[in-house]
Amino acid sequence: MAITAKMVSELRERTGAGMMDCKKVLVETDGDMEKAVELLREKGLAAAAKKAGRVAAEGLVETYISEDGSRGAVAEVNCETDFVAKNEEFIALAKNVAKQAALSSAADVEALLAEKYIADESITVQEAVTALIAKLGENMSVRRFDRFETAGVLSQYIHGGGRIAVMVELDSAKTETAEMVAKELALQVAASNPLFLSRDIVSEDVLNKEREIYRQQALNDGKPEKVVEKMVEGRINKYFKEVCLLEQLWIRDQDFSITKLVEQKSKEQGSDIKVVRFARFEKGEGIEKKEEDFAEEVRKQAGLSK
């Protein structure tokens, strides 16, 4: 029997199991929906999927750089509690996901999850995640990754035991000087959280929004119209120095901007160093955490909740 996308979608809706798991059991049961549901339950996949509604805002961000330095990745894998984030098997999963992301050609998380798991090719990445959900009893997810491929220099930095992960790419000869610059920039990105590499990639929409905020602030302060525009442009320049990596002041020496640092180190090594891009992942950023009422939870468990 031909397995259609509609059948996969229906089974996924009924059980909450992963798309690839649903398709696989439908093939095994020749499209019998009830048998497919039973099979998912027997495999523990439906039970694990019931946890999928719970907020997973804890976890780890991890990095990986290949031995030859040509490929790298930053990845975030989430779970529900800090306790599980410290579990050795969860840590191993996060490290393997970062390595898989670096070495694969997957364009997005869904494609990565469908690949054979780098640590056990008898299962997919999704199946590895699902098995760990069933074992540790918490919802987990591979949230995102960013892959780097270069003939230049890659450097990574992880801060706070997996709270912040950074990767920086330079277009440069692989010299000790370039390695030092890449390492310093990874620390800079972790500490200063730039939003952009340089001012020329900041969109007009973002700038117009900032200008409007600064303009309103100046007017609210009672500044005359004729000086407001000058004030706004002054604040925009200050904004660039705060959010653009190349314009930030170096955290080790405030007399140097990052641009000045890179220029000086280029002269020292006798060839250009160019900052290509960076990625900075902070664990759980943008995920709305559910506020737990501990007292209410105790009342519910004791059967006292109204």
Task: Give an overview of the whole structure.
This protein has 306 residues and is an alpha+beta fold. Among the domains are: 5-52, Helicase, Ruva Protein, domain 3 (Orthogonal Bundle); 54-149, Elongation factor Ts, dimerisation domain (Tetrahydropterin Synthase, Chain A, 2-Layer Sandwich). It contains 13 helices and ten strands. The protein has helices at 5-15, 19-28, 33-42, 45-49, 82-85, 88-103, 109-114, 125-136, 176-192, 204-220, 225-243, 258-269, 294-301; strands at 58-65, 71-79, 116-117, 120-124, 141-149, 153-159, 164-171, 249-250, 253-257, 274-282. A three-stranded antiparallel β-sheet has the order 1-2-5. A three-stranded antiparallel β-sheet has the order 6-7-10, covered by helices on one side. Strands 3-4 form a two-stranded antiparallel sheet. Strand 1 and strand 2 (71-79) form a beta hairpin. The mean pLDDT is 87.
List keywords for this structure.
single chain, 306 residues, alpha+beta, Helicase, Ruva Protein, domain 3, Tetrahydropterin Synthase, Chain A, three-stranded antiparallel beta sheet, 13 helices, globular, Elongation factor Ts, translation elongation factor activity
